[in-house]
Specification:
A hairpin with a 4-residue loop joins strand 1 and strand 2. The strands form 5 sheets. The protein has a 4-stranded parallel sheet with strand order 4-3-9-10, sandwiched between helices. Strands 5-6-7-8 form a 4-stranded antiparallel sheet. It has a 3-stranded mixed sheet with strand order 12-11-13, covered by helices on one side. By secondary structure, it is an alpha/beta fold. It has 3 domains: 248 residues, HUPs (Rossmann fold), CATH 3.40.50; 133 residues, no CATH class; 55 residues, no CATH class. It has 15 helices and 15 strands. The structure holds zinc ion. The site of zinc ion (ZN) has 4 residues, from helix 6.
Length: 508
Amino acid sequence: MGLHLYDTRRRRVRPFEPLRPGHVGVYVCGPTVQSPPHVGHVRTALPFDLLRRWLVQSGHEVTLVQNVTDIDDKIIINADRDGTSVWELATRQTRAFDDAYRTIGILPPTIQPRATGHIPEMIALISALIDGGYAYAGGGSVWFRVGFFAGYGALSHQRPDAMLPSAESEPGKADPRDFALWKAARPGEPFWSSPWGDGRPGWHLECSAMAGKYLGPVFDIHGGGLDLVFPHHENERAQTVCAAGGAAAGETGEMARYWMHVGLLTTGGTKMSKSLGNSVLVADALDAVRPQVLRYHLLSAHYRSTLEYTPEALGESAAAHDRVETFVRNALDILGGPGEAAALAADDGASPAGGARGRAARGGPGSEAVGGAAADAEAGLTPQQAWADFAAAMDDDLAVGRALAAIFGAVGQGNQVLSKAHSRKLAGWVNVTRRMLGVLGLDPHEQWPSAGAELRPALDGVMQIALDLRSAARARRDYAEADSIRSRLAAAGLIVEDTPEGQRWHLA
Ligand SMILES: [Zn+2]
């Protein structure tokens, strides 16, 4: 069926076609780096990581731009409160966000522009808007004339004349709905020079300038949290469209061809927010669960749904994730590793490689049944079908619930043949399970190796030497030496077992 995405602007799921075949440009509104990241920030960023991985899996090249808002009222207030500079605070919190994203397995953006590095682009954009009659200077600031853009309100589905003022009356502002493109400098605050006096950029303007610079005036997908639809994205769209084409293009053109918004993360039914005092910092969440479990949990609800964050739900996700992880580790242990599993499955044609796709999707995002594997236990389900179900779900506006059901179906089938005697079937199931998990950024073997796993090949080599020495000792009937080698290894936490197939070892 090909990828379909829900577009906020058109309020429906529609087929995704990139402007340039094979290449997708995505702009995601990044954090305002005023304080450490909470779980809601990570939840908002994750669907775009998922989208990117799926697009790449489907053969696209993706340019993902995620900005950093490093100048803002709250940054100035917090820096003042902490007795530090805005530059130091912004640098520290940018690093904290980068760390949180990396810890949770979010791939770094292709381009990560900072607002303060794009002041000349912003000044050029404001000039273009003034020249087109869409903006005016007043009171040392520059304002966007909302009433001059007939398309205003089309993204958030509001009538311009019914909208409430964006702020109380401010000096130089002609219409209460108008918003600031450039804010006049206030004493003691950072500022830049401009043709309209010293000041700093408005928040909405930053994103228009940076998206335009790196993706052009029209690009494929613009994303962010649901709370950004209005006013932030409405204003970005107004600025970009008007600056690009004047009135005619402005009223019919678009900044992004698809607008993707992520549902809120709530605690106690209220949006998780620093200012409301109900936020759970990523660092604190990771005291309770491993990063891959938090990732699994935040991904497991559809990206457009509201997700209530509770310890109970997190615990259920941990149990579900453990089931998948345990299967993959057990299966690879039995088969002797991923290379062996790939070779075995290729033998009987059960490998899903090649990406069988095109199975019709069933239902919408609402018809999800996480872990509902019972129905998949019927005879005849193959790894190829599991992959086709997974692909159809991902193509249907990233219906992760159904994608997870395909994974649990494969895990259920794999667990039924979890022995050396069924190694080919087992290989087929573990390979497809890992391929599906890889798209979600959750493959336990490759993306989340257990601690010390990178040392495993070296350890294997050293252990082989030790086991060979022990075999040689036994061959010459020096049992005292053979026992000594074994007990010295045991003291080092390396347990050797004698089995009908020879010596095996594992960590204590
Ligand atoms: Zn933005």
